[in-house]
Design goal:
1024 residues; alpha+beta; 10-stranded antiparallel beta sheet; 60 strands
């Protein structure tokens, strides 16, 4: 391997020397100038400036990306002829600010696409940037050499540009990965040269069999044991380990040398069982082997997949990168990975660019069969179940100091224990309802962690006193500062009893909050460190979440299947409800008052389940968190979760005045500038031809991506564009849809606009500024810019949407990037950040008041959640969608990935068999894509009937019950004395005295001996 690297280095040196003699570019040093521009070079309109600060010679070129254009280009005026099957080297010297890239525009003889190096960061030192290009084949005749500079405020000095021929294409070099075939074993039996995320066990060696029967690397994707917290630093924010939801680095190669600008051919075998969010990373390292960046290669996988061979070509960043390594990652949430035959070979022919992230996946035929992963959940809960009435009820809340500490008994049957060591307190160690533990007493205590403007350096929490105020208990403590100077901060712990009736089920427990105050410090964040485990034992408990982008949303905790929740912003980008259940009950937790911003992290292991919520503040001298409920029920299930979900989500929508709507079947017709180019009047074409077809299929929402002048998700103005027929064209479409019983939905921004929107020039105060001169979010930057609600943008936008609804009848909006410019932002001013977050919900409520049905691209609580549809193992022969029972209340859309094969695969997942029907049965209609679905007419009649069934009964889908044996889903509407059955299999069902109608056929159904016959994919209405 080393010899191969030396040869590659020699080739590079030789190419550099050759470049000086055979440069195919004119005026490469920018020494010749005429009419204010370097001879032989042009620009896209930005000024080209001559500077004396040259890398060599007398002159260099300077280009600037100003705020109006946000980019700068300079390109060779003439094209350069190419030889087939020949490799070239594109190179230049540069220094400056932000990023640039070399782009080679390809011609035959017309432009047929570009190939370019990865974006490279500029520095204040002259640096050489290389990009190896070749293997273009007969179809590419010539190239034009472009230099691209991006980002507002970016500038670059450029000199000594070259494009040189290296020679004929050569086969890839030797494998750079040591022991990539995993055959060489170390003393412990693990593959030599590979770093493992955990100790290699006997069981690993037993399972380490590759697809051809030889050795392979395998790793369990369960979390490492969590170290006990250091109580000596328990109160010091700065000394706490960074919170994490848990990832497993299954294996990492040794570091190997790479050549800047060189394309690498990356290949490996991979298989999995019960794995969550597997992905592969290549880490780019500098000459000191420190991290520069990382890049994801190959597919992502969830669940099970068999052995497959992955291949992708990846280009090494062109400057500052000299080493790399490859690593295989997954969530620490259970399952097992197998890896084998890892190869990374330097290409001496093929070139890839920054825009290419395609990969090939080939199933490995006749591979060794993999064992099943996971452990059955049965018999895991070892604690005895105690009846809830074994502890006496307390008529009034009280506090008693005992040898154990402060014993708090809240009205009802809640008992909390806060141990004391002298006057020192660590938090809540025991919490129970009657005799039922709500948490493992061996888990880290429940306690807040406070960050202040000076770092939050507290060394202890000192007990002061307590008070019982009605049924609320207040425990007063003091946070002791590290330096011992200044006044101590007051920290109050508030507790109160809570009971709730949710869909006929009783829940009881307590609520708590923290109140902090200081004369000298300012609060920035308060993190609530809590754990809850039903009966004090997480084993066998099922945790339910709702991440609309995730394939899996419930996890039964076993030794090999744990839980790593996705971080999010509660009620905007994260689930608003924590729920866990087992046969012996359920715990649910939620906030009991309006909150605009709480960051969440969730992780569960075999010992405890951590719930960490962090509430930010704007540097206040007093800070109070929202009331948080922790309630116990005697029975739990995924169906009970749906009822708690509705309760909590409607509760918080009510806090802000946001109307919640029932998701209806949506057809995503899409529509963008490419399609508009094929129709003189696209809106007219939709109204006259597509609307009747979609309506005939039973859809109720006709979704179009763009009706705007500029942008689809980000607009120039908020008004229909003339290119789409203006307000008249949109009104004609809306009228046609309404006549067919549908509403039209359009994409809409929340707190952002198109980067070149004239509104930013007219209202510069609207621009949402990020910290340190950087954008507030990396999402789509610089294509879109954030807009600050409080500066007048919200008033403008609401009035614009009012006018559109009044003039056109537009019925629904899909709120794009719902949280990206309100919660997922980085701002220097914390007050603005919190103001922006609250502004989103108030903006949402105002749009709701206008009468729009609102779909949101988020996982959160408000509107109809409609993010992109996740698919497991989309690159395999058997892609699959999420379990429909876990998609309750969602309305996932089938986005367009720019990959026809993947779009078709998702369409097949949704419409083949009864998957779409199952989604409707769980009140989760999935958007279909007209450009894709229209190509499978053989499925149209079935989907149309599914939609008609759902629309006919959805008003009665109030309380869900999933039937055992996968027989179907039954819904109850107690107010109307109606039940609805979605049948998944043929069989019989209990009528329970009701008259029955087959909604699918419209016929009455005969009931005999209290039962009636059902057919698969038929829907039944039962009236008492």
């Amino acid at each position: 391997m080393r010899r191969g690297l030396l040869i590659a280095a020699c080739v590079s040196i030789a190419a550099t020397a050759f470049a000086q003699e055979a440069n195919l570019l004119a005026n490469p040093g920018f020494e010749e100038w005429a009419d204010g521009a370097p001879v032989g070079w042009k620009s896209n309109g930005n000024p080209l400036m001559r500077v004396d600060d040259a890398h060599s010679g007398e002159a260099a070129l300077r280009i600037d990306a100003d705020a109006a254009n946000n980019r700068a280009d300079v390109f060779q005026a003439e094209t350069t002829d190419l030889k087939p099957d020949t490799q070239y080297l594109a190179s230049m010297w540069a220094k400056g600010k932000w990023r640039l890239r070399i782009q080679l525009s390809q011609y035959n003889p017309n432009w047929v696409g570009g190939c370019s190096m990865l974006h490279a960061d500029l520095t204040d030192q002259w640096t050489r940037y290389d990009f190896f290009y070749g293997a273009v084949g007969e179809e590419i005749k010539s190239i034009r050499f472009d230099i691209y500079l991006g980002d507002v405020g970016a500038w670059a000095m450029i000199d000594d540009v070259s494009f040189t021929e290296i020679g004929p294409v050569q086969p890839p070099g030797e494998n750079l990965v040591a022991n990539g075939d995993m055959e060489a074993a170390g003393a412990d039996g693990s593959p030599e040269g590979w770093g493992l995320g955990r100790a290699y066990s006997e069981r690993d060696r037993e399972l380490a069999v590759g697809p051809d029967g030889s050795r392979a690397l395998t790793a369990a994707c369960t979390p490492n044991e969590v170290a006990a917290p250091d109580m000596a630093t328990w109160w010091d924010w700065a000394k706490q380990p960074a919170p994490s939801v848990g990832w497993t680095n299954a294996a990492g190669s040794e570091t190997f040398e790479v050549e800047p600008g060189r394309t690498l051919e990356v290949s490996f075998d991979i298989a999995g069982r019960g794995v969550r969010t597997y992905h592969t990373k290549i880490f780019w390292l500098d000459e000191d082997r420190d991290l520069v960046d990382w890049f994801t290669v190959g597919p992502k996988h969830d669940g099970d997949w068999d052995w497959e061979r992955v291949h992708q070509s990846v280009t090494v960043p062109s400057a500052g990168v000299h080493y790399a390594r490859i690593e295989f990652w997954a969530r620490s949430a259970g399952g097992r990975l197998w890896v084998d035959d890892v190869e990374i070979r330097p290409s001496h022919g093929r070139a890839t660019g920054w825009v290419e992230a395609r990969y090939d996946v080939e199933p490995i035929a006749h591979a060794t069969e993999l064992p099943d992963a996971g452990t059955a959940a049965a018999d895991l809960r070892q604690l005895a179940v105690s009846a809830a009435n074994t502890a006496p009820r307390v008529k009034r809340s009280r506090v008693k100091r005992t040898d154990e500490g402060l014993e708090i008994r809240l009205k009802g049957q809640t008992r909390l224990l806060m141990p004391l060591d002298g006057d020192r307190i660590v938090g809540i160690t025991q919490a129970q309802w009657a005799a039922t533990p709500l948490r493992n007493p061996q888990a880290p205590p429940i306690a807040p962690l406070v960050e202040t403007d000076s770092g939050g350096h507290y060394t202890a929490c000192r007990y002061l006193d307590h008070e019982v105020r009605g049924d609320e208990v207040i425990v007063r403590t003091a946070l002791v500062r590290e330096d011992g100077e200044g006044s101590e901060a007051l920290l109050e712990w508030h507790f109160r009893p809570v009971t709730r009736e949710i869909a006929g089920e009783s829940y009881a427990g307590y609520a708590y909050r923290y109140a902090w105050a200081s004369d000298t410090e300012r609060a920035l964040q308060i993190a609530d460190r809590a754990t809850w485990e039903l009966r004090g034992d997480p084993m066998g408990v099922t945790v339910v979440t709702q991440n609309a982008y995730a394939v899996q949303n419930q996890y039964t905790i076993t030794p090999e299947n744990t839980y790593a929740g996705d971080p999010g912003t509660r009620f905007a980008g994260g689930d608003g409800l924590d729920y866990q259940y087992a046969d012996d009950g359920a715990i649910l937790s939620f906030y009991d008052e309006a909150i605009p911003y709480v960051d969440t992290l969730r992780a569960g292991g075999t010992q405890y389940i951590a719930y960490r919520d962090t509430m930010p503040f704007a540097g206040d001298s007093e800070a109070t968190t929202a009331w948080r409920c922790v309630l116990l029920s005697g029975a739990g299930s995924h169906d009970a979760w749906t009822r708690a979900h509705d309760y909590v989500y409607n509760l918080h929508a009510g806090f802000w005045g946001i109307a919640q709507h029932t998701p209806m079947p949506v057809m995503n017709v899409w529509g963008h500038w490419k399609e508009r180019a094929t129709h003189d009047d696209l809106m007219g074409y939709y109204a006259g031809e597509v609307v009747p077809q979609v309506a005939a299929l039973g859809f109720k929402v006709f979704s179009v991506h763009s009706i705007w002048g500029k942008g689809g998700c980000s607009l120039d103005y908020i008004r229909p564009g003339d290119e789409w027929g203006g307000a008249e064209g949109v009104k004609a479409l809306c009228d046609a849809a309404v006549a067919q019983g549908m509403i039209v939905q359009a994409w809409a921004p929340t707190a952002h606009l198109w980067q070149f929107s004239p509104l930013f020039e007219q209202h510069p105060e609207w621009h949402l500024e990020g910290a340190n001169g950087k954008p507030p979010t990396t999402y789509c930057w610089p294509d879109i810019l954030g807009a600050r609600f409080a500066t007048g943008y919200a008033d403008y936008a609401v009035e614009a949407w009012r006018k559109i609804r009044e003039e056109t009848g537009l019925g629904a909006l899909w709120l794009d990037s719902y949280r990206n410019f309100t919660h997922g932002i980085n701002l220097a001013d914390r007050k603005v950040k919190l103001e922006q977050a609250e502004g989103l919900f108030r903006f949402h409520a105002r749009l709701s008041d206008l009468g729009y049905v609102l779909y949101t691209e988020s996982t959160g609580t408000f509107g109809i959640n409609a993010p992109g549809f996740p698919v497991a193992n989309i690159d395999t022969a058997h892609p699959s969608g999420p379990d429909p029972t876990t998609r309750y209340g969602l309305s996932n859309y089938l986005g367009h990935r720019g990959n026809d094969a993947q779009d078709r695969a998702i369409n097949d997942v949704l419409t083949a068999g009864d998957y779409y029907y199952r989604m409707l049965a769980n009140k989760s209609p999935v958007w279909l894509s007209w450009p894709v679905f229209s190509q499978t007419p053989e499925r149209h009649a079935k989907i149309a009937q599914n939609n008609r069934d759902y629309v006919a009964v959805v008003e009665h889908m109030k309380l869900r019950t999933t039937l055992p044996g996968d027989r179907g889903v039954e819904w109850a509407d107690p107010d109307a004395s109606v039940r609805v059955l979605f049948a998944f299999t043929d069989g019989t069902h209990e009528a329970r005295g009701a008259t029955v109608t087959d909604v699918t056929t419209g016929e009455s159904v005969t009931v005999e001996a209290g039962k009636f016959a059902v057919k698969a994919m038929h829907t039944y209405l039962m009236r008492d």
